[in-house]
Every structure is written in C-alpha cells, then in structure tokens.
Model the fold of this input.
Amino acid sequence: MSERYRQQQEEIFRKLETSASGLDSQTVRRHMEQYGKNAIAEEKKKSTFIIFLEQFKDFLVIILIIAALISAFTGDFESFIVIIAVITMNAILGTIQTVKAEKSLSNLKKLSSPTAKVLRNGQTVVIPAEDLTVGDVVLLEAGDQIPADGRLLECASLQTNESALTGESTNVEKELVNIAEEVPLAERKNMVYSGSFVTYGRGSFVITEIGMQTEVGKIASLIQNAEARKTPLQKSLDQFGRRLSIGILIICGLVFLLNMLRVDVINFDSIMESLMFAIALAVAAIPEALSSIVTIVLSFGTQKMSRENAIIRKLQAVEGLGSVSVICSDKTGTLTQNKMTVRKIVTDGKIIAAKDVKPENNAQHELLLASVLCSDAICKDETEIGDPTETALVRFVQNRGLSDDKIRQTYLRISEIPFDSERKLMSTLHSYGNTKRMYTKGATDVMLERMKCSETEKKRIRQQVEELSKQGLRVLCFAFKECQADTITLGDENELTYLGLIAEMDPPREESKQAVVECRSAGIKPVMITGDHIVTASAIAKEIGILERPEEAVEGVALDAFTDEELVDYVADKSVYARVTPEHKIRIVKAWQKRDKVVAMTGDGVNDAPALKQADVGVTMGITGTEVSKDAAAMVLADDNFATIVKAVKNGRNIYENIKKAILFLLSGNLAGIIVVLFNSAVGLPVPFAAIHLLFINLLTDSLPAIALGLEPYSDSVMKKKPRPAGESIMTRDFLIGVGYSGFVISIAVIGAFLIGYYYGGTHDSSAAMTMAFATLCMSRLFHGFNCKSEKPVIFTKQLWNNAFAIWAFLAGMVLINAVLWIPGLHSLFQITDNLSIVLVLAMYGFSIGSMLVIQLIKGIAAAVKHKK
Done:
C-alpha cells in the first residue's frame, strides 16, 4: 500500500499486526501464507522448441513447404531437399535471435539483498531476504542493501541512495517525520525502498510491502506489460509479406488455371505440369533469403557500432535508430556526469565562478580550508570515498592547487559533531598552534539562524542563495567560531561567523550540448525526463539546449490531470519533465508514439527499465546502468556518452538506406522471374525455370551481392534529412517504380534469351531454353547489383568501385554460375544442357550485360529530368 508514508506509526503497527520488537513465529507463518515470498515474479518463457516451430508460421514459409511437398510428390527430390534446407536454415537463424531471452525480471531479483538482519520474537536474527514478510522489523546500517519497502522506526543520520528508483544522484536524508499530504516517492523521507542501499548512518524499519508489491515489484509488472514494439522496417516487411502472400495465391491460381485450359486432356501428368508452373512462380516470387540477408546486414552494422561504443542487444534497434524522431533522455548519468561538482562560490558578498577562484585571496582561502576540514570525504587518484557532496568539495580544493592532506595535517581535527538530518549541520574543531577554531557547514536557512550577522547581510545572503538555486545549484553555507575547549557540543553551534557559500551541481557532459545541436539538425526532438527537481532539471536542460522556454518544463504530477488521449496533445511542446515516476515515463513515451513518432528512451536506473522496453529503441548506459536497464534496453552505450547516440542514429540511417538497396536488388530480380514465368504461361511456352534454378539464384548468387549492398560505404548526408515518418512503408512510390522498371528490363533480357534458345536452329529445345533463361537471369541479377548502388548512374564514376565487398560478391557469383554451366558433373543436379552453341553462349552474356546498360541509361535520363525540375 503506497499510502503507508502518510499513516501514523501506531496505525501501521495495528494494520500489519506487528510492533517495534518485530513479529512472533506464529504471525510470521500466517503472513508468509498471506503475502507469499519476498521475491519478484517472472513470466513463463517459451521453450526453444516452441520458438523454433513459430518460425514456420509465416505464410511465405508455408507456401515454400507446400512447394517442397509437391516437388517430392512429383519425384523432384533435389528441389525438395534444397527448399527444406533453406526454410530450416532460416528457422534456425530466427530462433537464435529470439532465444536471446529477456533477463530483466531475474536481474530485478538480484536487487534484493541475500540476507537481512531482522527482529523475530524480540531477538536479532539474520535470514534470507526472500523469507522476510510484511510486519518484520529490519535493522539497517551503512552498506546494507534494503530488502523490502518499509516505514522507518529509528533513524540516526540515515542516508540512502535511491538513484536507481528515482533518478536522483544525491543521497537522500531520511527523517522520522509525519507526512500529511501526497508527495512523490523521492520526497517520502520516512520510507525506505527495496533496491536502494544505505550510504550513511543506521536505523530500522517495519516492512510494509514485499515482492511484487514493492516499488521495484511494480516496475517489474510494468516491464511485463510494456510492449516490445516492432521497428518501422519490420512493420514494412510484414506488410509487404502479407500483400505478397495474397498476390502469390491469386497469381499462382491464375497460372494453374491457364495451364489447365491449354491442355487437351486433363490427367495426372497435365495437373502435375501445371502445378510445377505454379511452384516455379511461387519460388520466383518469394525472396527466400530476404530475412536472412537483412539479419546479416544488421549484424555487420552492430559490429561497426560496437567499435563506436554503441552495443546493440537487439538487431532491430539498428534500423530503428535510423527512424528515431524523439529521444526521451534521463538526466542523471546520461546528459550529466553523475558526479557533483563545485560550480560557484560566494565570498565578500560576490558570486564567483569556480574557475575564477584564487586560493591566494584570504577570504576565498579561508572558505576552501573550511570545505576540506568540515568534511569526511577522501579523494585519492580515481578513488572517492564519502558523500558525493563532500567529495566534490575536496576535488574542488585539489583542482585549485591545494593539498587536502596537507591542510588536514596542518589543522588537526580534535573534536566533531557529525551531520544530523534534524540539525542539518556538521561541525569540526581544529587546532593550529595555540588557536582552536570550529568550522560548521549546513543548510543556509539553518545556518543563518545561528550566525551573528546583521539582518541586512542575512537578506543579501538569502537573495544570493535564491539566485543560485534558480540555476539548479545545491548551496552549502560555511561559518566558523573561535573556541577555547578541546571538545565541542551542540551549544557551540551558535554565534557563528559567516565565511561564504559553495554551490554545487551534477554538471552536463561536455558532449551533450553538441549532441543536442546535432539531434535538432537531424530533425530529432530531444526531451529530458528525470526524477530530479524541476529547477535543477530546467537549469541543465537550458544549458545544453533542450529547454528553450520556461513553459516547456513541467513536473510529473501535472501529467496526472490528463487522460492518455489528452496527453498526446500536451506533450507536443514540452521538453522537460521533472519529478516523474516510472508510470509517467511510460505514458510520455506512449503519447509520443501515438503522435506517430519513433521514440528512443535513454536511462540507466531500475526506474527507467519499463520505459526502455516500451520505447521503439531503449538505450541505456554501460558503465552506470543497472543490469535491469541493460536487459530491458535494445542498445547499451559502452562509454555512457550521450553523443554516441547521435553516431548510432547516423549509422542506423545509413544501414536502413543500404537495406533498401538490398531489398530493391532482391525484389526487382524476383519480379523479373515472375514476369518470365507469367509470359511463358500466357503464350503456352514450357516452364522457363526449374525450382532449383530459382533457389540457386535466390540463395547463392543473389545473397552475396545483397549483403554487399548492405555494406555500402556510409554517407554524412543522411543526417541532413528529417526522420522517416513512423508509418512510412519501405515500399514508397519511388521505390516501387525502381523495382518495376528494373524487373521489367531484366525480364525482357531473360525472355529474349529463352526464345533464342528455344527456337535456335529451328528446334523447340526446352532444355537449352531453360538453361539460357536460368543463366541470363542469374548473371543479369549479378550485374544489377551495381545498378542498385545509387539512384544515379554509376557506370562511369568511382562509386562503381568504392565497395570491395560488391566487387568480390560479383566475382563470386560469376564463378558459381559459370561453374554450374561449364562443369559437366553439375549439369544433372541443376538441369543444365550440354548443347549450347557459341551463338547461344554469346547471346546469354550479351543479354546479361545489356540489361545493366539499359537500366543505367534509364537512371541517367531520370536524373537529368529531375535536375531540370
């Protein structure tokens, strides 16, 4: 129950049937039965075998299976074996990709500490965390991981780190306070939460929620319910597959009927012959290797991106990145350094930038001394021990050329009063020669009440604090007092002399500002979503260019006033969301998606995981990211650098363009095969291809050029275009025109080769004609690979030779087809004739090269017309 933070302690004890001394054994057993284990539930996963079987649900695959069975029935066992081998190979590849099981929920389990100190029957015992139940009283000390959600009973300077849940980088000071009004999770000072850990002090709490009812458990539920969305390319290919399936059924039926109408007598042989025509058409129409080639191209893309610190967990994310139009980014650790840093100080009534601080100035020197002496942090090389606020002070002093070790050795600490969340102060007493001085730091409002300065000066200090706070800075006040005794007490923390202020913040990454500029130039809207305060979030967002107007920043609670439908319009002009919950993050992502935007969500905490999964592309941090966020995300930034996302977007856009080239190549070649089969069927000519011919082309000689086109050199020009609309199909008008005229030209060449082979020498040699059609289609498609490199002619440009993969793919394909043509041992398997005259051989090569030249001419004419417009 999330309202426990608003209830009185006595009411909680009564409702949970417990007390300050914990549960007795009988109540423990009853509660265990009622509430279950303190564990995160997991969804039941599909077995690998079921996933493998699901690969055969695709309608195109079913058509191929039917084709294979008919081939076997007619005695064409070679075609049967080849087709079955192809679809099995594709099913295995699909299974391997799918079986990269989601580990998000199992990693959420790891957030619970393995053991916990708990009061049972009035005695302190250590038990496994999963055996805790509602009503248990748990003891906490520094370093403990908190095993469940609960209400504090004792609190001695207790501080916890809840950044994984709330997104805030600083420790949270806990208090035994009563809270009447509703407040966000980050401001529930009297509660502790599973998944966070104790950084300072000690305390105890009574468990109010366990397992799936904890805040971490709620996030687990959100992960389960968040949709795993398909990328635009997946949607486009699915849509194309459905349309192709319907088209194949209709056309195959027509071809079968046409052939049946042509025969004089309908018998078994005529039916089988007509079926073979339909099979040839089905095999010609289905781009069997398309899914495998897309997967291979995406895999190569992931290798390149990993070298640039973008590790892809899900292949589809590569293409998805190229479509991204909105990046919803977490602040802490993503846009910022996740490291508190001194930005400004105040001495002598002046606000001074950190870089302008001069230790030789007496007032500034005294403030620097106080910041080191009145802190417990230790900073050695890359190691930092202590509260982030204090480590920032020590690092600042070191960066100003002073030695914190030397300062502490010179001014020995002889007494101290540790920080207390109720006092909001810390004091230390130091000796230097014959003098003793106490330094005190704390919250400005508390310090001003204890200082002996005038009201005028106090007013000025408050104004300066307000000015700094509006810039998103966290302000600490410093003062001192001369002492006589060797120890200090709480009574000494009065009549203090003001020294100055030090203002800190978690600064933006240096690369963030440029990355935001590049996002905007690429038509991508950057949005900040954070659990931090709106003032801090706005300051950071303004500094890096995300926030342009103050009204673009809102708090998460404002979203609660809108329905999901109303939120779709509300998000349009908002750039910063502060104090958000995991539910808010998912609602924001969904709202943008309903605006037909492709959304990338970046984050590194447990609280980001549901939104990372809901987003079209979830991006998390490799260094600071939690295991939960990494497993929910599609991409991990190895260097935690926001700018790496921009590189990934560029790569994604280039990869998409290259995949389009590969698909254009495959579909136009397959269209040529379809036209040839339809032509022969319509005019009563023999079937132009055996099924094994088309499979040879689609899987061997076509695959290498298609993969090579997917590896075309990348271009910077893609970042000057706006993102593709989310609903835009890959089959655009221009794309389909390119497929159409290319397929038509190649089909004319193949039909010409078939007719010459069939009628040459006055014979009706169907074997020679089939060999001519097969070889011409195969080689024409190999040459066509160069056509698909660009919308413009490439034959007389360097672009023809700029991809070594394309050259090698062409040569490999030519070697394969010529091996089939000229090695006698392969003729029987591939149904090749031995009787080709020199005229037929020259015609076969001439038609193949000629198809490329004609397509290049058409591209040249089209480019010239477009240039004139």
In short: The radius of gyration is 36 Å.
